[in-house]
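Encode chain A's predicted structure.
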Amino acid sequence: MAEALILAAPARCDATAMVEVCVTGLQVFAQIGVHAHERGRTQLLSIDVTVTLDPPDADRLDASIDYQRIADDAEALGRAHINLIETFARRLATSCLAHPAARQVCVSVQKPGALRNGLAGTRVVLTRG
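Encoded structure for chain A:
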């Protein structure tokens, strides 16, 4: 009997719910950097994305955001030279926020090769106004 309850569609309630779609540890080679030695070559970026959205109203991919779209958008950004990881993160966040159900996007980008003894990174948070 309990099994039937789990498989049934959840009942609507008055609580406000949000869903977080997460892509973590995405590895993208990007043309990025401001220094002369960074131009004309790709560098590894490690990317985490969290998109907060309204709960899907149906059990279909088009009612949510596709993880692969996020990855594809990040790879596309890496093909053209961008100076700053802050700009890269903002552009990726803007792309994710274009999804109609998205309410907030958090994009973290780390550039493992930027420092000899540490990890350089940035975090951008965009909220639909």
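Helices lie at 2-7, 67-77, 85-97.
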